[in-house]
Amino acid sequence: MADAERPRSSSRREAIPGYGLLIEDDGDYVKKKMSQSTGEEILTELICQLGFDDILCEVPTTTDVTTVMMPYASSLFSRRIPADRPQGAPRPSREFAFLGQFTDLPEDVVFAVEYSVHGAMYAVYRLFGVDREIRRSTTGSSTQRSALLRSSKVA
Q1: Which pTM does this prediction carry?
Q2: Which end of the chain is more exposed for a tag (fewer CB within 10 A), N or C?
Q3: Which pLDDT tens digit goes with each residue over 78-119?
Q4: What domain range is 133 assigned to?
Q5: Residue 29 maps to a domain
Q6: Dist CA 116 CA 4 (whole Å)
Q7: CA distances for 29 relative to 11, 89, 106, 117, 130, angstroms
Q8: Do 98 and 155 have their domain in common?
């Protein structure tokens, strides 16, 4: 086989993690629940959702998709109300606190190592009367979030 006929191969591989929140809903393009779909079907739904129909034939033939169900990781993103999670150091407690990914820290980003660290800092600072700011790794105002939501809507 001549070099010009040989398929290009690259030792460079890229991994792009994805997350599906509503896995029990049928897709808009692939009429199947995500939890029951193959990797290629999920990729097809994504390509169509993004409006990249022009590369729909090429991408699935050059992409490997591995699906994984992660129920414990997914629980962090489940719909919730503030009462679903305890405060890190609930008032009027003076002797105990809740730590970890399932405490409520307003204005903080869940699913990051920092979230657990911030929760522990909040509890210790509150219980021991430490007057010190907990620096967030991410910041944002409700105005910024609203702008992001508006920009993500497809016309």
Answers
A1: 0.49
A2: C
A3: 667 777 888 888 888 888 888 888 788 877 777 677 888 888
A4: 79-155
A5: yes
A6: 54
A7: 33, 46, 36, 41, 53
A8: yes
